[in-house]
Amino acid sequence: MDDIDTSLPQLSQRIEQRLALLRSLAESLESSTWALARNDAEAIARGAAHQAELCRQWSCLEDELREEAERRGAPPSAGTSGGFPQSEPSARLQAEWGALGARIRYLTRVHWSLLRHLQRSLAILNRVVDSCASTYTPDPGLLRPEVRLRAGE
């Protein structure tokens, strides 16, 4: 029982870390959504870097949790109560976990949609530029000889 008593504060701290990372990821995705909608390339790049760092931190935290569970010989917790009755704080944390997961799924769908629209816009712009390229490219036969010499150097 002593082992459980000493690990509960640490487990509680890990749960709070997981929730904090999810909150940060949701906030970062939300701000990146606005950057995508405004076509703010710099903000998009900053957001993507921040989200990659949050995902790296998440992965490290999950690895630590798995290693800790393996040391104890217990299966890693997947948000279940382990057969114990759920307390009110546990139910609140579970509800927050579910809400954050739903929010992140929604925001990633919005990102995917915005990125698809941006990709289509770029494809259209690329076709326009390609169709106008011959209009703005001078015919080499029309260039003066001295211009052709400089261009050939």
SSE map:
Layout: H1 2-38, H2 41-72, H3 88-136, H4 145-152
Helix pairs in contact: 1-2, 1-3
Any descriptors?
single chain, 153 residues, mainly alpha, elongated
Outline the structure in words.
The protein starts with a helix and ends with a helix. The relative contact order is 0.09. Residues 78-85 have low confidence and may be disordered. The protein has a domain at 1-78. It is mainly α and 153 residues long. The chain has helices at 2-38, 41-72, 88-136, 145-152.
Mean pLDDT metric:
80
Query: Based on CA inertia axes, which overall geometry fits?
Result: elongated
Percent range for β-strand residues: under 5%
The radius of gyration computed from the alpha-carbon positions, rounded to a whole number of angstroms, is 27 Å
Describe what is shown at a glance.
By secondary structure, the protein is mainly alpha-helical.
